[in-house]
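worker-3 :: picked UPF0716 protein FxsA
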Amino acid sequence: MRKLLLFFIMIFIIEIFTLIYISDAIGFVYTFLGVMLTSLIGGYIVKRYSKLNWQQVKSSLERGVTPEYSIFKSILLIIVGALVVLPGFIGDIIGIILLIPKVQHYVISTIKGYVMHKMRQKGTVIIRSNRFRP
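worker-3 :: tokens ->
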């Protein structure tokens, strides 16, 4: 959790410097309009992906399959949502990159591996099943 907080703080600092640089290059008004436009478009895209992901979760639950991948994808979409809605271009670029399916798969696999590792360290029993049991 600390690493994620540090990541967002670093992104925020880089965003400030980037916004100052771009504002000097193209002007404050165009920079402001660009930030607003990318935030609106990014917010719409994340909202759309979130709805599709929620439909996948519901479909998996209806079939009796654990929606493991969709849950991790939801976590990633929350992070992407924070990156694209906050003002700045760097966060938008990172957020858009995280919406690419192959990048998503890699990041989700990494997050899943990390969570599983932490659970094993704490002695949590992990039962793998593709079906819920009544």
